[in-house]
């Protein structure tokens, strides 16, 4: 097994699906010769040819509309939207079209489309490059929204996403792209798209997080362990649907929960987790639900990103508050 | 493709002179039923002419009967096609079974000609899932698109799919209106198909109005056809009240695309004789009788009826009989549509994902319990 970065793990996963299924196609802006602006598709055009891996004109609605037409004619598209902020150009293709087609056809038409897109703060990018827009998308029935927090999951989940017959919005965290390495098996393996993972076991409090916030939560767990506080960390992995069973099992044990996300607080993922707990498992808790999220402002100017993004310190403070309730 | 006539659809010529789009609409018979292009007219056999007339009579009868049903409160959203018969049926006549059709809401007649049933059209209007049974039957047509422009980008994908599948003699079509040409997706779809040199024919049925907004508000461009030119796609304007012209242009555009020359954009000049939709639109709020009058004189049925009558291929009795026969069929279709089974929310839930997620599965159970009461 090789130690791979998150980005290489995704490349590896894409290489795998291109090999296994001749109907898979990768396309988007700069994904061909240039291998993507982050090199996620590096080498794939050389290996699989320009019929399978190709650049498109620069238009996001066009790219996702193209995906729908290709899916209708028997292909399995893996379009890339260069940054998640640009998905706003293609919201109709996602929410108005591809996610509705199975329903429209009573299950007789599939839209096996995996939209890959990088997101996430902390890398001081230009405006609308770092925004976490999952809260906009998780409210769309028929669309899966997933995001891996480590290289192992990244490869296994990208393979699962491509093999899935429903549209999947596959969010890749920019900050994680090159900041961590994992043992990543060669060849084909999958990580389920709708199962949360217990990233670390603990017994005193549960932190529910996803993407980069999982690492922040793990830092908190490490630190508090020295004080004999045992923190369980759950990595959601799938933001829609949300694996509530894993969350409930954890809080039945810890009786305390903090939900951490990088996105703004209004509605969305953390709010949904809180509501699911309140609706189904509130009696397990012996303290209020704690939430850590970005403030409900516009994603900040790059130089102020670190002041705005929720980090380990914020999570730690919230965990202590809930523990001392 | 024929040559040497100023009315000839010479796409090759258009392509090589992109800056000079075709500005004189293609026409074969004028509004008085006078044959203005004998050379092109002679490409039609008597059978062709009768067949085209029958299709227009069918569409007009469909419109009339459907408006009746609508007034009786038996339908939901319906976009009248009155006045656009030459545009819609001329193009439909050029489509082949293997072609993919991406219609908009006003294109039910073409969709039905391509293999959907009138009953499915009525179910679409009423809002019942069986309206898309034609897709299940393998008819190569997608849904009548409500989001204006979306069909253009999706069709570009299907055209690329056709090319990648190596299917010969197959094209993809999409329809939009004059208002639709202002959408970003309109340009993106044409431009994508152009970039990939995919077998695509894009149609704009310019009926003068986008609900209450006139054509001139959409753009200062002289023609809508020329909007293809900037994408490297030949654009052709055709008299959309002349079914012989719309058919020929659609056919030549198809030939051009299947020959591997890339997409074509066709603008048909037509007119919406009636309201925008059956949902309370009143054209007198935004247009005058003076504007409408010359268009009614261009009625596509009048001119072909005259040509056929002169050739002794048609008479009123024949037309009346056909209309009566068609209307009987539509009445039956309506009865069939009204007999469609009650829909179940649990079924909708089942088709949200291929495999229901736990939350969806819980809702399925909940609704099934309700439905079994
Ligand atoms: C994206 C979108 N915007 C607005 C509408 C509402 N709408 C429905 S039809 C219409 C006018 C369309 O005009 P045109 O494209 O000329 O087609 P026509 O109805 O005349 O055939 C409008 C504004 C819509 N359906 N979709
Ligand atoms: Mg119009």
What is this entry, summarized?
With about 325 residues, chain A is an alpha/beta fold.
**Helix vs. strand class of chain B:** alpha/beta
H/I helix tally of chain B: 16
Largest interface: A-B, 44 and 42 residues
Oligomer: heterodimer
Uncertain residue ranges of chain B: 1-9, 12-21
**Which sequence of SSEs, written as H and E, runs from N to C of chain B?**
HHHHEHHHHEHEEEHEHEHHHHH
Full CATH superfamily name of the largest domain in chain B: Thiamin diphosphate (ThDP)-binding fold, Pyr/PP domains
What is the overall silhouette of chain A? globular
CATH C-level label of the largest domain in chain A: Alpha Beta
User: What is the H-and-E element order of chain A?
Assistant: EHEHEHEHHEHEHEEEEHEEHEHEHH
Structure description:
The complex is a heterodimer of chains A (about 325) and B (about 375). Chain A contains 12 helices and 14 strands. With about 325 residues, chain A is α/β, with parallel strands linked by helices. Chain A has 2 domains: about 180 residues, Thiamin diphosphate (ThDP)-binding fold, Pyr/PP domains (Rossmann fold, 3-Layer(aba) Sandwich); about 130 residues, Rossmann fold. Chain A has a 5-stranded mixed β-sheet, sandwiched between helices. Chain B is of the alpha/beta class and about 375 residues long. Chain B has 2 domains: about 325 residues, Thiamin diphosphate (ThDP)-binding fold, Pyr/PP domains (Rossmann fold); about 30 residues, no CATH class. Chain B contains 16 helices and 7 strands. In chain B, helix 3 packs across helix 4 and helix 3 packs antiparallel against helix 13. Chains A and B meet through helix 3, helix 4 and helix 5 of A and helix 8, helix 9, helix 15 and helix 16 of B. The complex binds thiamine diphosphate and magnesium ion. The site of thiamine diphosphate (TPP) has 15 residues of chain B, from strand 2 and strand 4. The site of magnesium ion has 6 residues of chain B, from strand 4. Chain B: One of its GO terms (biological process) is branched-chain amino acid catabolic process. Chain B: It comes from Lentilactobacillus diolivorans DSM 14421. Chain B: GO terms for molecular function: pyruvate dehydrogenase (acetyl-transferring) activity.
